Amino acid sequence: MVRSATRKRAARCMLPASLMNRSSRPPPLSLRERNKRKTLATIRQAAWSLFVEKGFERTTTREIAERAKVAAGTVFVHAKDKDELLAMVFQQRVSTAFERGFDAVDESAALTDRLVSVFGVFFDEYALQPELALRFLCVTLTLTGAHGQTQAQVEEDFVARLAAVLSRARDKGETRDDLDCVGYARNLFALYRFAVFRWLASEHKRDASQGKSTLRESFAVAHTGARPRAKKRATIAPDAEVIADERRSLRVSATPSKGHERASVKGFGAPRVPADLLAGLGALKGSSERPPPDARPSRRPNR
User: Fold this and answer.
1) Strands (E), 171-279
2) For residue 265, what pLDDT is reported?
3) How many CB atoms lie within 10 A of CB 225?
4) Which segments of the chain belong to CATH 1.10.10.60?
5) CA dihedral defined by 287, 290, 294, 300, rounded to 10 degrees?
6) CATH number of the 34-78 domain
7) Domain with CATH 1.10.357.10 in the chain
8) pLDDT in tens, 208-233
9) Which ranges of the chain would DSSP assign to H, the alpha helix?
10) Which of 77, 101, 236, 286 would be 118's cystine partner, CB 3.0–4.6 Å?
11) Could you say which residues of the chain have pLDDT below 70?
């Protein structure tokens, strides 16, 4: 009886699993927040469809409001102008694209191939609407406010994920041991920016493979500085006896052969000078010290 009563009290004290895990779940969205997100998604979809159909310049915010079936003032609550509307559209598409790129990384491929695969999803996305993509990238350079913060956060998230890829490559010995993964990831992102602007401004802007090829060349050059350094060969100090033997062999004291003077050379192998060469040098020296013909005393012939 006592045990059964204790078990009943313990059972009453235990919370259901759904209530125990409720604290770890995010709080549910309010009805107002859900409606706000739904309206934002509708405006984003309406803006994208009109930008594609009519072009960025010919589309008006009034048309976007009519397509989204909201008031014109509601559009300006989420974006102050068309540039922010375009940024709002592409930010969502870019975020989805880079998640797809990181999920498809093949860890068995070479590092340059993995990097091009991650960045390649942007070229695939921008090739669909290159004119809008170029406009969006130009807008991101001067974007401020809430949308500027969103763009900065998207880029920071991408750099962090890219640094994780580089960190795994460093652990496998594909890069230098002292590689700054975050700094290198930022440099790669800067190279990507240059490559994608150059590609979108070219006549091949609808061919994503052309942009990826340019990016691959840039990454290959950058990766030469990140590769593992060659290990220096260990130098073995020479034995003392070997050094002594070498010094003795350099102290030459040999008897000259026929036609050569005796030479006693100490040091590191000074050359021996032949005797005939020395005699010739002496003759030249003697001739240079003789007085000129006019100053020589005349000899009378013996009679």
Assistant:
1) 252-254, 263-265
2) 45
3) 11
4) 34-78
5) -100
6) 1.10.10.60
7) 80-228
8) 999 999 999 999 888 887 777 666 55
9) 2-13, 17-20, 31-54, 61-68, 72-78, 82-103, 111-126, 130-140, 145-171, 181-200, 208-223, 240-250, 275-289
10) 101
11) 1-26, 229-303
Topology, domain 80-228: Tetracycline Repressor; domain 2 (1.10.357)
Amino acid 190: pLDDT: 94
Question: Which amino acid is residue 164, in one-letter code?
Answer: A
Query: Residues for the chain: how many in total?
Result: 303
The pLDDT score that the predictor gives to residue 273 is 57
Helix axes 82-103, 111-126, angle to 10 degrees: 150
Mean pLDDT of the chain: 79
3-state helix, strand, coil in the chain (%, to 5): 65, 5, 30
pLDDT for 191 equals 94
Question: Residue 73's closest CA among 43, 100, 107?
Answer: 43
* 137 close to 200: Cβ distance less than 8 angstroms: yes
Question: pLDDT at position 35, please?
Answer: 79
